[in-house]
Amino acid sequence: MRNTHPHSLTFAHQFCSIEININSAICDEAILFIDADFNGDQKLDLAVANSGTNNVTTIFSQGAGSFSATLQTTPTGGMGPNSLISVDLNGDGFLDLVTANQLGTNVSVMLGATGGKFGNGTVYSVGNGPFYVASSDLNGDLQPDLISSNGGAGNVSVLLSQCN
Length: 164
Ligand SMILES: [Ca+2]
Ligand SMILES: [Ca+2]
Fold this sequence. Notes:
single chain, five-stranded antiparallel β-sheet, 1 helix, binds calcium ion
């Protein structure tokens, strides 16, 4: 069947492994959540992309459905981050965060560290208006690569990892 979605390419979705929940009706800002264990205590934490303030908030679970009142905020360095994923891009055992910065032409990578902390975002250029980002090993070198779907440009960008 022909794919009529202008921003959807078949190969990108075959490799995508995204864990996101869309909550576009919650707030004026576009916010997306992901859950993962960022601090290694085997409790699922939350990360939220804050489109209006260009950062990511991390909320740590205390178990039994409760979360720490102390929020951790990490600047993305990009404009309008509206979706995010977590993946260990550099293979150090700490989950990293990647945001698609819809109001710009880049994605941001925030490297994870001990205790669920994240370094400030480093931006990598992609096409205009990236709406989603995904990660997969596209070229078989066992390094996770990044793929963004660019709503403004109507295309996708592939960023190949160069860790070696
Ligand atoms: Ca945790
Ligand atoms: Ca990492």
